[in-house]
Design goal:
By secondary structure, the protein is mainly alpha-helical. The protein is built from six helices and no strands. The protein has one domain (47-187).
């Protein structure tokens, strides 16, 4: 019986995987791209300087990515620490001082406070993750375009692209570099990954 369940589970997983690819391309990818752009708009508050900051980070290169992910992990651990220590801390403060407190908050008030702190911290981490993930995605796309056009340009042009990428400070500069690489791709009839730019 268990072997039959395992075989049926394996067949089901393969079928779901086969169905997931067309669903991803036709439905989920556009929806997730829209959700990503909406989250990035919220996290940058629509301010061009914050949007440009994302692309400045993209131009910095590979070695900063690990540090950015570390910040996200540390922030997540910070949230967990708050969630586990806040209720005890509030109760300890309430129990240790009877002077100046007209009444002791009940459990619902403490839970409400914890919920507010949790929602706030989770929102900050979510926006930070969306921004970091987009920076990584944009950096990988830049590298992908460089790899595609590399055989079709000379060494000097490769160095110029590398220098321009290292100097990215704004979204406009990022888009201009991508467009320049796309023109080389079109001129040589190469595959264009058609990335989604925020």
């Amino acid at each position: 019986m268990r072997k039959l369940q395992a075989i049926l589970g394996l067949i089901g997983a393969v079928l779901l995987g086969a169905l997931a690819t067309p669903l991803w391309e036709s439905f989920e990818k556009p929806v997730l791209t829209f959700a990503r752009d909406a989250a990035l708009n919220l996290s940058t508050l629509g301010m061009q300087s914050l949007v440009d900051g994302i692309y400045y980070d993209v131009g910095r290169g590979q070695y900063e990515r690990g540090a950015e992910r570390l910040v996200v992990v540390v922030t997540a651990l910070y949230i967990l620490l708050i969630l586990f220590t806040m209720p005890r801390l509030i109760r300890r403060i309430i129990n240790s001082s009877n002077v100046g407190i007209p009444r002791i908050p009940d459990r619902r008030e403490v839970n409400l406070l914890m919920s507010i702190v949790f929602v706030f911290c989770s929102t900050v981490v979510m926006f930070d993750n969306v921004t970091t993930i987009y920076k990584i995605e944009a950096s990988v796309n830049l590298e992908r375009y460089q790899s595609i056009v590399a055989p079709y340009i000379d060494e000097n042009q490769r160095l110029v692209f590398k220098s321009r990428i290292a100097q990215i400070r704004t979204r406009v500069e990022f888009v201009t570099i991508i467009q320049d690489m796309k023109s080389i791709i079109q001129k040589n009839n190469l595959y264009d990954p058609a990335i989604s730019i925020f």
